[in-house]
Design goal:
Blueprint (H helix, E strand, L loop, with lengths): L22 H10 L3 H15 L8 H8 L8 H13 L28 H18 L15 H8 L26 H21 L1 H19 L5 H24 L3 H18 L2 H17 L3 H14 L6 H17 L3 H15 L18 H18 L4 H18 L6 H17 L3 H15 L5 H18 L3 H13 L8
Helix pairs in contact: 2-3, 2-4, 5-8, 5-10, 6-12, 7-8, 7-9, 8-9, 9-10, 9-11, 10-11, 11-12, 11-13, 12-13, 13-14, 13-15, 14-15, 15-16, 15-17, 16-17, 17-18, 17-19, 18-19, 18-20, 19-20
């Protein structure tokens, strides 16, 4: 064992006489089913991936952590990542009863300065690192997910008015030449974001993620040049859209810390662009990620922040989407009354779209009647699971999910959404103890998944099949589906 291999007691830790067993870490460790030796091996392996080759942990060191020793960085972050992956939810450093040194904003965390120049610098740095490293699950040496107050409190500053920006020197002066971006070039950049969004909807996040990150990096280069105010605002808007899409694609392929950092930077860029509806949409993407990671309370806080921040400027389509996401959060929190109210608000607000006389931005046009029914049906499906596989909520989900599947079947552009709703319908049939129908839908989703590079789709198919095996493992259709899954969607470590 290394004498100081990054695993010693940090400054300010209790003396041996004061040390108390770490009950939180012990609880997570016991539930994980790992031995001390296995945890030590995983910590060492993850440390090597991070480039922290000085880390050398063994069973004796793990025992000391459980007894109350607080390890130095990067071990608290490594333990957070390992337990998060083990349980499929965010397990923050604080949840493990550990302390961590405050990270520098440029490398990790979400508490970043809300200023234009620093937003540009961080976007440039992060996108460049992503392009250079492209390492699954890691970006740099200290990227970790944020949750709870460490996530929500910094995002609340989205609503704080920015201080007045000093007037920039005349861009036509010799010292500050006008940026080389022309109006047609700006139009092309905006249309490129639209194109990437189409590709993502049709092909999943794995195929074009690096192209989006590369385009984002090019836009940050343009933002570092002197531009007229109107052009600069449009460039920030394009940067926000591309960063959100890079985050969404990262989320889709399972790169959760990377996704969160892009979402945060996208929100900063949207604020610089003065586009509050776009900011609310970015917050909704962050909310969706938190639901996926088992943090519905955080998801609800983010949605309420989005609703408050865009209450006087969001179109009915945007408001309807936010209500639908609010319903998802309440469903996962096990609050049926509030969930049902949010579902009704989403439906009622959606009917106002016909009377809205302004065109919606491209980034929200995905929220169609099919998406509305899909989101609301998933809320009732989630309620069914939270309520102990309630047949009542499964019955509420079925007609909405059926309509969503019917509409998506006619939409060649949104193939990933079609697959996700087929899987959702399969889970509803399992809740209603109708495994034969479930296997048919899961097989249809599997056929689409082979064409769509989306780890999110693949993971949901695997979970649905696992549930079918657990509840109806002797059924011939379930056995056949399991064999087909192993052949057509094998679990592989895919580089993105």
């Amino acid at each position: 064992m290394s004498g100081n291999g990054g695993s010693g007691t940090s400054a300010g830790s209790p003396t041996p006489a004061e040390k108390r067993p770490n009950e939180l870490l012990t609880s997570w460790f016991v539930r994980s089913g790992w031995s001390k030796g296995e945890l030590a091996r995983q910590v060492n392996r993850r440390a090597r991936q991070l480039g922290a080759n000085h880390i050398s942990t063994d069973t004796s060191r793990v025992r000391r952590w459980l007894d109350g020793e607080n390890p130095r960085e990067p071990i608290p972050r490594i333990l957070s990542e390992l337990f998060s992956e083990r349980f499929g939810v965010v397990v923050a450093v604080e949840d493990l009863g550990l302390r961590t040194t405050r990270p520098t904003p440029s490398t990790t965390g979400v508490d970043l300065p809300w200023t234009g120049p620093q937003t540009v610098a961080l976007l440039s740095e992060f996108s460049r690192s992503d392009l250079m490293l492209a390492r699954r699950g890691f970006l740099g040496t200290s990227l970790a997910l944020s949750a709870g107050p460490s996530l929500i409190e910094p995002m609340q500053r989205w609503l704080v008015p920015s201080p007045p920006v000093p007037a920039e020197p005349d861009p036509l002066s010799a010292e500050h030449p006008r940026g080389r971006l022309s109006a047609p070039e700006l139009d092309l950049l905006e249309s490129t974001a639209v194109m990437f969004r189409r590709w993502d909807a049709q092909c999943g996040g794995g195929l074009r993620r690096k192209a989006v990150v590369g385009q984002l990096h090019e836009v940050t280069d343009l933002l570092q040049e002197s531009q007229p105010d109107a052009i600069r605002a449009k460039l920030f808007k394009v940067a926000a859209e591309l960063a959100e899409l890079a985050g969404w694609m990262s989320y889709d392929v399972g790169l959760q810390p990377t996704a969160q950092k892009y979402f945060v930077l996208a929100l900063h860029a949207a604020k610089e662009a003065g586009d509050r509806p776009l900011g609310s949409y970015i917050l909704s993407s962050m909310s969706r990620q938190m639901i996926h990671l088992g943090r519905p309370e955080d998801a609800l806080e983010l949605i309420h922040l989005a609703q408050y921040g865009s209450r006087d400027c969001a179109s009915p389509r945007i408001q309807s989407m936010l209500y639908a996401m609010e319903a998802r959060a309440y469903a996962n929190m096990g609050q049926p009354g509030r969930c049902k109210r949010a579902v009704r608000m989403a439906e009622d607000t959606f009917t106002d779209i016909a009377e809205w006389d302004e065109p919606d931005p491209d980034w929200i046009r995905f929220f169609s009647e099919a998406e509305l029914h899909g989101e609301n049906s998933h809320s009732f499906r989630d309620l069914a699971y939270v309520a102990g596989r309630s047949p009542t909520y499964a019955s509420l989900a079925e007609p909405l999910m059926s309509r969503a599947v019917e509409l998506f079947a006619q939409d060649e552009e949104h193939q990933r959404s079609y697959a996700l709703n087929l899987i959702g319908m399969a889970t509803v049939h399992l809740l209603r103890r109708e495994p034969e129908q479930s296997t048919v839908l899961a097989a249809e989703a599997m056929a689409i998944a082979k064409k769509v590079r989306s780890e999110r789709v693949n993971t949901r198919i695997r979970k649905t099949v696992d549930t079918a095996v657990r509840d109806f493992g002797d059924l011939g259709e379930v056995i056949d589906l399991t064999e087909r899954l192993a052949i057509e969607l094998p679990e592989t470590a895919e580089a993105v």
